[in-house]
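Entry type: protein chain
Record version: 2
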Amino acid sequence: MASVLVLGAGSVAPPLVKYLLDQENVNVTVASRTVSKAERIIAGHPNGTPLALTMDQDEMLDDLVSKHDVSVSLLPYTYHVKVAKLCIKYKKHMVTTSYVSAEMNALDAEAKAAGVIILNEIGLDPGIDHMSAMKIINEVQEKGGTIKSFRSTTGALQAFEANNNPFGYKFSWAPRGVLLASKNASQWLEDGQIRKYPGEELFENYTIVDVPGVGAFENYPNRDSVPYKEIYGLEGAETVYRGTFRMTGWCETMRNVMATGWLGEEELENFTGTTYADVTKHLIRAPADACAEQAMIDFLGLKHYATVIKRMKWLGLFSDRALPDGPNTPIDHLNVISLDRMELGDGERDMIVMFHEFLTEYPDGKKERITSTFLDFGIPDGDTSIARTVGLPAAIGVKMVLNGKITEPGVHVPVTKNIYEPVMAELETIGIKFSEDTTVL
């Protein structure tokens, strides 16, 4: 039987593990710091094995990788290269849903020499975004057309009926990743010019975009879009943009949260406070006996009725709530209170919105606007949409590696037909599909 090692038992693991356990002749080991999570996912399946594992147990990790045909890393991205090096050492394959880091990309030659496939970015974003875009790009190019403008944006949000807090956002996965992404620098290609902004200006460069049949959202740039001109083969494109959707009001609020220092990753120095209000006052250098709310109003230069202030107050940043145990950093404290106040509730659904827009030109002078829209909802009290759309593409990728449908060794992302066509075709059979519309301009 084939064997798969799944490292991590977080929120996206259940659909992936269930899919693999439903395959014939596949054993799945789920290794997690909290073994009870692995046990719940496997649910007593005879081909599943739960294990307790922390990433400092090097001998155990070494042994596990050596005994499995494919390792799936659902760990924080900082551990992927460690796992990849073990896969290369033992000539085993690897799948991740994360972006390819420079360190991972540097392993390409070693992976090829060892005959090892390292398939990355096969989740939702990155993943389904790549594959659905490449489908249309290749169709246009095969008809002799050129993509002049490409825009792609994804939002992992709560469903509209669950949009009932003042931030307009709920976490269906770990808040810390969302908060850290709020500090990413961004750049993209716009009408032939590179627009480039540091992380502190990320939320100053948003637009309002109407997704037909879905709604209007804030759209802010997602990391570095410029390399995708080459990755996607968009030689003639003058605009290449990848973004993130949020409900309206998010960008202004997060820009102000960032300005206060609440996203800081360093330990608080010379801090003796015990509450969230104490941290707020410390970050904005207000006197210890000051009113945290009024101090924030003065610091940001806002009115007392400003929506940003109301949101901060609702979240608890001016409150006497005791700080949690653990790392004494602003972002870790913010992570705890955000999950407590903004977690997707029982019986609530999350929602994925993905929207591509292509402006094309053909040799006969014809111009078209092509849109591709994906809207998906989670299952109340079941798998979230983000878990399905991240976990299932990765699971299909694992199956393709096991069945010899992907054979070329090296570090890969799913932008070639031999990968994205079968993955997208199978996703359609389980309801993960796009609606496309073409307008002649």
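Comment: Residues 2-119 form a domain with the Rossmann fold fold (CATH 3.40.50.720).
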